[in-house]
Amino acid sequence: MIGILDRYIGRSILSTTVLVLFTLVSxxxxxxxxxxxxxxxxxxxxxxxxxxxxxxxxxxxAYLLFAPAVLLGSLLGLGSLANNSELxxxxxxxxxVGRIVRAVLITGVGLTVVAALLGETVMxxxxxxxxxxxxxxxxxxxxxxxxxxxxxxxxxxxxxxxTVLPDKTLLGVTVHTFREQKLTESxxxxxxxxxxxxxxxxEGIQISTFSDDGVKTQQQKRASWSELSSSSDPDGSSTNxxxxxxxxxLSVSDENLSALALYNQVRYLKDNQLDSNTTELSxxxxxxxxxxxxxxxxxxxxxxxxxxxSGGAGQRVFVGILxxxxxxxxxxxxxxxxxxxxxxxxxxxxxxxxxxxFVSLIGIQRVS
Length: 368
What we know:
Elements (H helix, E strand, L loop, with lengths): L3 H33 L10 H37 L2 H7 L4 H42 L11 E5 L2 E8 L5 E10 L2 E13 L5 E12 L2 E11 H8 L11 H5 L10 H13 L5 H12 L2 H17 L5 H28 L4 H23 L1
Antiparallel strand pairs: 1-2, 2-3, 3-4, 4-5, 5-6
């Protein structure tokens, strides 16, 4: 049951957290907009389009800053209660530290749900729209011929995409089919577009078949990619060479993708015996990221209880910023060290959270 004490402490944390988050997001968005002004004038990229782009990235900025904002908000909110001697009165009235921690955690659970919903529903979609808007305005392409060309593998087939346009049209598609370590077929298409069923259709096709009798070449104007793939790979293992969703995710970094999109990428990489550790690490970080909200709340409690009436808001802001920087640096350091040491991506993602949770529990135990 959520009592009056839980609601009172929750309101103190929520009000300051919302204020801190709004301030941080506004500052980061302003700096990002100033940075985007360097590209204004290129193609059709105007100041208005840059403003739209930044507004669309606001949910992503808020998601990335959510945990540090909760840390600062908790320090300021609970610190205000400590300055007004309200925490002292609570403890004098028989309210234990554990009971106050419980009230804080109840608020943390609600904030964790908000962070999860933001990261899984709003942010991935707005980030994708933002990147497509920017690329279209700048008349840029996601990849170009050369070292940045896109290579993917599916079963016995290897696909090279020379260029991915902002509308996800593929240019310069080449599919090589290998059997028993021998090249048996090469398919070259001028372009690939999506039909009404969101399936790939190849245009300007040239198919070369290699055998002991020589090379046979045939041409087609237009054909379904899945049908051509099935005919060249009878066991049906390569009918879905490159999903449209996978191409859509190219313009968005791993940290801005949903857990479902990352899971599909991990499954694709594993099915084709490709290295999936980095993507799998991003997936588990996405799953565990909302829990960092709870850890940040726990981490703020020892400093609030330890200082009580000593120190003002400025000191708490400094402590919060310092803790946030330490958390970000340690999170990246521990994650990469664990992954390089041979730990699984799941353990690598959980290790930083476990470390800071342990530190917070030790601190709470000492002040109680």
